[in-house]
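ENCODED BACKBONE
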Amino acid sequence: MKRLIADKEDTEQVFHIIEALNGRSFEKNFHAFVESPKGQELLAKREFLPPVLDDHEWIRKLPEGTVGRAYIEFMEREGLTAQGLVDESEKFRGAVRDFDDDMLWYGNRLRDTHDLFHVLSGYGRDALGEASLLAFTYSQTPGLGVIFISFMGTRQIMKSVPKSARVMDCFHEGKRNGAIASKIVQEDIVALMHEPLETARKRLRIEKPVAYLKALEICAHRGLVADKIGLVPNQIQAAA
């Protein structure tokens, strides 16, 4: 963690932290997924999401205000692609996952829906947004490595922002919102893209990130740019 704090672009440390702390949480999350009716239905299809998500032509035809339109606007604004996340994760994929089975497919699905989590949850890609989203993700698919990085990242951010921003509230809010929400990984992603964004948030019980938005507002008032705050690596989603 010290190495990651010293160099937020040293993404390799993220993988070491998660591998050291997650234990069997991935397997437990996988078994919970496959034991659910929705999980079994999705597993029977075993759809690979990156080509679907990177085909912006069909998504752009969806009505304004849908999840799909919000997704491609987010991805294009941030200069991201689903395949880019695949490429990043493949640099560090452990040998234990070098086989094609249902567990690998599930792990890929967690990776490939990360940016959709951003869109649905309302957390941005700034450092505080990533830290808060990791707390949200932890409640959706528990793993000690993820929540440790989220907590430590939030602590680092506290050092560079006004106390009135109350950034630790963002950490707790992320955990709480993730716990209240339905399991996004169990959703039919193509069908979800067709839903109006606010309708989908209401159906999935995704609360507005009030503390996070307030923190950004306070930081902006003090002249602090969101993406310059803190020390959470932007590539962390490839590991989480």
Notes: Confidence is low (pLDDT under 50) at residues 230-240. The chain has 16 helices and no strands. The first helix runs from residue 2 to 6.
